[in-house]
Amino acid sequence: MTASVPGTSPHTAEHAVDVLRYSAFTTDPSGGNPAGVVLGTGALADTAILAVAARIGYSETAFVTARDEAARRYRVRYFSPRAEVAFCGHATIATAAALAERSGPGELVFDTAAGEIRVTTTTGDGPPRATLTSVPGHSRPAEAVRLPEE
Questions:
Q1: Mind listing the pLDDT tens digit for each residue in 33-77?
Q2: What Cα–Cα distance (Å) separates residue 108 from each residue in 53, 74, 135?
Q3: Which of 60, 69, 84, 149 does the annotation list as catalytic?
Q4: In which band, very low, low, confident or very high, does the pLDDT at 149 lie, cut at 50, 70 and 90?
Q5: Has 101 been annotated as catalytic?
Q6: Which residue spans traverse the membrane (predicted)?
Q7: Which of helix, strand or coil describes residue 72?
Q8: CATH of 2-132, one of 3.10.310.10, 3.40.50.10280, 3.10.580.10, 1.20.1420.30
Q9: CB-based burial label for 117 (10 Å; 0-12, 13-18, 19+)
């Protein structure tokens, strides 16, 4: 599904942004994990990209900010309605499916704030499928904190 969402930049007039809406991890569009995908940001400033993500309202929206189509390599940034995040698995799957619909199946490389992500896409009888190995997670021991009793 595609929708136009106006985004504003403090230095430019209003822009129309084509937003693709995908549901990852399902073949039913009303299920799965919804994610917005913007395949081209043009000259949008970060504040405008954040405003678009906020208007979409999904937990994350992926924005393709640069591309080398011959190498099938893309710079992808992820935004929640409130801030940029380093990585989002379901938005990565959604972005890969959108690109596979337009450019065909095969391997894609996404450069993200969390590192390089390789995604393999396939097409067949149904919607495109994407497979990836997620970036390593980061954790640290929890600090001991006494919670107030209710």
A1: 899 999 998 789 999 999 999 999 999 999 999 999 999 999 999
A2: 24, 8, 15
A3: 60
A4: confident
A5: no
A6: none
A7: coil
A8: 3.10.310.10
A9: buried
